[in-house]
Structure formats: C-alpha cells, structure tokens
Amino acid sequence: MSKFPENFLWGGATAANQLEGAFDRDGKGLSVADAMPGGKERLAILASDDFDWSIDESKYTYPNHRGIDHYDRFKEDIALFAEMGFKCYRFSIAWSRIFPQGDEMEPNEAGLKFYDELIDECLKYNIEPVITISHYEMPLNLATTYGGWKNRQLIDFYERYANTVLTRFHSKVKYWMTFNEINSSFHAPVLSQGLINKTGAKDFKSIIQGWHNQFVASAKAVKIGHELNPDLQIGCMIIYATTYSMDSNPINQMATIKQNQEFNFYCADVQVRGKYSAFTNRFFKEHGITWADLEIEDQDFALIKEHTVDYVGFSYYMSAVVDIVSEDNAQVAGNLLGGVKNPFLEASDWGWQIDPEGMRIALNEIYNRYQVPCFIVENGLGAYDKIEADGSIVDDYRIDYLQRHIAAMAEAIEDGVDLIGYTPWGCIDLVSASTGEMSKRYGFVYVDLDDEGQGTLDRSKKKSFDWYQKVIATNGDDLSNN
Fold first, then answer.
1. Which pLDDT band holds residue 330 (cuts at 50, 70, 90)?
2. Which is the most buried residue in 189, 229, 254, 292, by most CB within 10 A?
C-alpha cells in the first residue's frame, strides 16, 4: 500500500449542535437543531406540513439540548483526541452562540470566548483546528422570522458572522469550510437552508434561491478569509455518494449522469469553478424555474467567480444505485438519500450500503473534475455498540469498515489524487443528525448516554480507539487489527 503524505491530517469530526449541549447558556440563542425532535421519525416530522419550529417538550424529546455535554467537558475530550494522536480536529462553531438571533449587529463575547478556549486546547496538543462555519445550526430566528436561506438578507447576516469568526480566529486556524453538506438541501432543505414546508421546502425555486444566496455568502467568506491571510485554506463541503447505473441500459446510464450532476456536482461546481455548470439551464427548466425567477444582483456572479474555494471537503458514507427502468427493485436507506439496493454490497445497522471501493472512485471523480485538493471530513460506521461484562467495547465491525476505507484512500493517492486529510465522523459518540439517537454510534470514544437521555456521560475507549491510535502513529502503514 502506498504511503500517505508526511503531513497528512489524521483526525476526527463533530458538529456543535450534536455534542456541545448547553443550548441556552452564556447568551446562546436557539438554533434550528434545538427545535428538531429526537427519534427515528425526526426527518419525517420535519418534513410534515404541520411542523412550524415550535418546541413541544410534552410531545417530543430534544437530545441536542444536552448533547454529550462537550461544552463543559471539551478539555477531557480533546485530551482523548490527543491521546489517539490526532493531527487535526474538525468541529463547527454554533452560529447562535456568536449571534444568538442571527441578525444582531454585535456578537456575543461569551460565545467567542468559548471557541477561543476550545481552539487553544487543540493547539496545546498540536492539533490543527478545522472549522465549519455553518453546520446545520443556523439561528432559529433566521428560519422563523426571515424564512431561511431563500431570503437574501441572510447573505448579510452570514457575512457579518463569518467576518467575526474569521477575524477573531484566523491567526490560530488555517483550515475552514463555509457550509456543511451544502448539497443536502436537494433532499432535506430543513438542515442547511432552514426551510420547512410552510416556508418553501417543497418549492424547488426556494431551494435554488437558497443555494444561490449561500454561494454568494460562501464567496464573501472566502474573500474575507483570504484578505486576512492569503494562506488560509477555505473549502466547500458536500455529501458525496458515488453513483452507479444498475445496468448497461443507456437510459439508466443517462439517469446516473443526471443524478451525479444534480446532486454530487451542482453546488461544488459553482464553489470550485466559480460559475454555474452547462447543465444548469436544463436542470432549472425541468423544475419549472428560469433565471428571471431568481433574485440575483449584478455583482453576484463576479463574487462567485473571483472567490472560489481552495479545496473540496466531503462526506462519504455509502454509494447509490440508479434504475429508472425497473419498478420492482429493493430499496435501501442512506445519508439523506436512499436508492436501489446494490446486490454486491453489505449494509450497516441503519441500512446504509458499505462500499469502500466507492470512496476510491469518489476521490478520483472529484479530484479529476476539479484539480484542487480533497479532504474527507466525514466517513464512518453508525452501529449499535455492546458493552461487555468487563466494560470493554469490541467494535471490530467499525475497525473493519475504517480499515477498508483507509486502504481505498491509499489507492486513490496512488492514483494521483491530492488528499490532504481524513476526519472520521463522530470520533466521540454524539447525537445523530438524522434521528437524534445516541444508539447510532460512530465514535472511538463511548459516551454513557442512551436515547432517553439517561446515563453518566462518562467517556470510555472502544477497541477502535487503540486501533486508530496505531494507524495515525504509523501514518496509515499499519491497518492491522491485533
């Protein structure tokens, strides 16, 4: 197996809304995540016509409110990451800690101070912070009062927020991403754009407008960052699902190309290339949209063109299969998008198809399309973990998943891909974004907390903790499980 680059960024990834807790402390305002109920029906509830962002604790639980208490225990958690040997740690800043309502003129100093301390704790251990500016946690007020990202006013609010955090932390933090899984709005605009059915989630024009506004906002953040320090690395971040045609039927082949264009590439094309792609006009036409329907200002396209991202960050969990010819295919779940069952693949406890070779394909497709560095900022196995009588957690299934994906990464590097880092998702157990569950665990570190919010919150190491420690120590040369 080829060796990873000497300066390869091994680490782990989390998001503020899924682990911090302290949802109403030190001046923090409510975020959209704080209004999302927990449980397997979370996304169905959010997609219902009667959902209106109301918090009803008599009817639902809200596990994001407590998270895993990282807000109070971050020093303990960072010490565990350092023990594993992390070279970097990807986390997000909670927008509503900095601007509680999102539309204030002045930031909340207590929120900035928290991230100062978190960043300094990382740097104490020579862990490079990798910060997502907006990760499914926009201030709730921006969704309820302004209607989410379809409203151009959010560009100004985001610009003020991005300017605040970039100015405050740019001397300490080199790596940034503007929006988490920006293309997720294709299937779940509630998460990234703050749109619900009452405010445009079913209206594709609202989603397209939301994306355009986010492209402009992202470009402004890149401009701010590069003016502060030209060496800052500011990336986009997308969900990537390697997509296969079910067979050689040309109809399915074309449908696969179309799904790739619309889901995998639409957002990244704009953010990396600096312009909308050739397929956009037909994409709009098929959804009954014209450019004239969108609120666009003269300088938008120049901003997007001049301030492109430095790298492509992406999440990769599973691949997808397209078949629009047959109607009797078995269906499977996935990371916001499901699809046709692939007979050659196994699936996780949550039905996500496990496809390590698909990661190699993804890296080749992304790098050869954009010719900018790639950064895998999410990858991992959500699974049920069992505590043995002696307190150990033998998660060989997780080790096997990660082994095979890291081996595929090494092959992609050998293929010529410029891959700068790898941060497996949920390096410490946290609240699931799609279901609000704790039982869907990804971490190398176990957190004693169940789906009902019961537990000590004590941290303990899984078998994968020591395994990943060895992987990092050997720079990916030793993936053996012994």
1. low
2. 189
